[in-house]
Amino acid sequence: MDSVGLPVLTELVIDVPSVTSNSFEDATKQSSSWILTRLHAGYFRINLSFCGQTLLWKTFGESDFYNSLIIRPKLPSAVFVLLWSVSLIMLSLISLLYILRCFFHFNMVKAEFLHHVGVNYLFVPWISWLLLLQSSPFMSPKSVQYVVVFWLFVIPVALLNVKIYGQWFTKGKRFLSAVANPASQLSVIANLVAARAAAKMGWMESAIFFFSIGITHYVVIFVTLYQRPIGIYRLPAKLRPVFFLFIAAPSTASVAWDSVSGSFGTPSKILFYLSFFHFASLVIKLPVILET
């Protein structure tokens, strides 16, 4: 009886792990494919918010108000290092997943690139990396590593500039009046963030170059969005929070010009008050913007 039972038991022990392993592999492939197919560039907005907060904490730690305190709490510096580390991990993870999406689902990435709203979100990862670079506690703006990383993140912005802004000069379906939407301001923000990063390195010509591109197209987009005729494509309800980019563009321009000029002068104040006006306007119209 033992001689009969042993082969049966051995067969079960061998077969069960084999079936379980195959099922696990299939489930893993389906799960990974599910993640990659649904991970569009819009998810980089999470990183954008974290990296923006990281730069804010660094700016606060370097402010005159904080340095004037007799007793300086350790909380801002501790929070800054923690927030920077978390931002780096999250941005690296989502960037890695999106690179895998480019390899295994290139058609989906191409569809984003050709979509008049989705293409603007391709600026967001580079904005996030540039913000994280400017808030880095480990690299000085004058260091070689900083310069190399800066160009690594700025070159894609320049290439996307050629694609986005170049198509507006051509005839066809890509006229700015037909495709302009609040998300178009992400391209402006990318150039302004690049201008601030270049100014921190002391590269004023490069900073003015990116600032001029950003501020010029901001004026064009701003006027176009204000004068869009009735019946032009409207954003779906899920994307209406991007109206708050009306605040981000002039406020980013304000701090960018502060870095370029070396002082928070009249141009920076004008842009700051413009962003404050947009903030007040959007708060008043918030129920209308977010309605389904």
From TrEMBL:
Highest taxon of the lineage: Eukaryota
Cited InterPro entries: SLAC/SLAH, SLAC1/Mae1/Ssu1/TehA, Voltage-dep_anion_channel_sf
CC per GO annotation: endomembrane system; plasma membrane
Membrane-crossing residue ranges in chain numbering: 78-101, 113-132, 144-162, 174-195, 207-227, 239-258, 270-290
Primary residence: membrane
Membrane topology: Multi-pass membrane protein
Record-stated family: Belongs to the SLAC1 S-type anion channel family.
Protein name: S-type anion channel slah1
